[in-house]
Write a structure and sequence with these properties.
Blueprint (H helix, E strand, L loop, with lengths): L4 E14 L4 H10 L7 E7 L2 E5 L3 E4 L11 E10 L1 H11 L15 H13 L5 H4 L9 H18 L29 H16 L15 H16 L4 H4 L5 H15 L9 H20 L5 H11 L3 H7 L6 H7 L15 H14 L3 H8 L2 H10 L5 H19 L6 H26 L4 H17 L2 H8 L5 H6 L4 H39 L1
Antiparallel strand pairs: 1-2, 1-5, 2-3, 3-4
Helix pairs in contact: 1-14, 7-9, 7-11, 9-10, 10-11, 10-12, 11-14, 14-17, 15-18, 16-17, 16-18, 17-18, 17-19, 18-19, 18-20, 19-22
Amino acid sequence: KESTMSTKRYKVTLHLYDLSQGMAKALSPSLLGKQIDGIWHTGLVVYGYEYFYGGGIQYDLPARTPAGQPTQVIELGATEIGQQAFHDYLHSIAGEFTPEKYSLLRHNCNNFCDVVARFLTGKGIPSFITGLPEEALNTPLGAMFRPFIEQMEQQMKAGAAQHMVPWGNAALDLPRGVHEHAAVATDEEERKTAQLKQQQQQQPAKQSKMVLSSDKKHKSFHALIKAASRKLRRSADADHAELALSTDEEAVLASVVKALSSGNSNNNNNGDADAAVRASLPLFDRLMQQWPIEHLFAVVGLFRLVVLRRVAAMHVVEPENAALARIVSLFKSPPQDDGGTKVPKMAAVLALCTLANLFQFSDAAVRMAAHEDVVDAVAGALTWDIDEVRMTAATVVFNMSLAVSDASADDAHGERALESCVHAASMVANALVSNTAVGANAQVCERLLAALTRFVRANEETAMILDALEFDAAPIAAKHAKLKPLVDAFAEVMNKARQAMNEESEEEEEEEEEDGNEVDVVD
């Protein structure tokens, strides 16, 4: 039998899952007036297994639990406590973590992980997890997330994990022995881990991929659209009542949601999904143009997932399509307290998410980048006094810069997109000055500066415009120290662009001088 203290030290990590799949972070500022990064579920990983609490104390192989893949893996340290001693401890607290005692708000998986982490390492899990305010789930936002969370609870309580804990007088069903792939900690590894963490905190993340708004909330937004339709149908205003979904439209909507919810819906070569999406586009065009602003949140929330299909993205960017103008109108200017109809903040965020998704397809992206009205509208969104709106707008600009950097001057749309770099860069420069001055989120400045760097690389003339604007990135590094490497990289790109333009100018002068000499010889 293994002794209480092991001769090895086992790594202890926390698997963090966001049950809202990103929706809490996107929508909480609008609904709660403060940022909530996620609705957290956790599992503690040690001895090669993941231990968690849902329908009692359970275990499975890491990332094989009903929660799926973790959003984040957090290093908690190492333990010298042997697995048998840990299991003895779990037996001793089993009565406190039964299915009957599970409470979503007060006694949940996070409380369990906090308790066992203290036993193993002497310290609990991060407070931002255990400190998730109870009132968050009693708000409209919480009401949206509650069905997903309750579904997860039911999966756990029904024994969705491979190993369910039997209760009563039965013994806990825990793994026999340490897994062969259990992570063992060494002094050198712990030192390197600490050093890597410090470096990551000091340096900005390097991004080279599109940031897309993609999740599995098709059915949720479908339900919200149907609820809005029922509300319109019951309206005393006859004009509003006529806007409700018809029976045929409800069938079309159900069909596209089913297609997008299928396992291979992300494959853009899926003909069945494309057919369903194509059939739904006239309906989305109608809803975008005719439905009142207060009901567009649900429509845009689903449509941002529809445009992840190329057939939908290309439809939106067609010149005669009015849906794009309607989407842009949702974030073109901040809501005003003028007594008029306000654009819901959530609708503005999701409209920007839709725009960000449109940039993933190069043929659609170059058309978008060359659309000055779109660029101007995004510039307007960057001035909103709402961090989440500014963050999403910065993401749109970042995706645009990636698309433009791949554009070809040989194509008419590509040439216009490259020319748009100048216009976009001036907008981004102004936004960076404004956002830095007001102390915006560092990530907003990071994405804007990364985009500006790409605009300069794509079109060297952009550097000339930035010099004319007397743009200086140094204050960004002064405000956000971790962005200094990015500021230095931007300065290097600017210098290379200036040098290239100077060389080109000298070559042109030499050619003009040679042409002049030839004329003199002829004379």
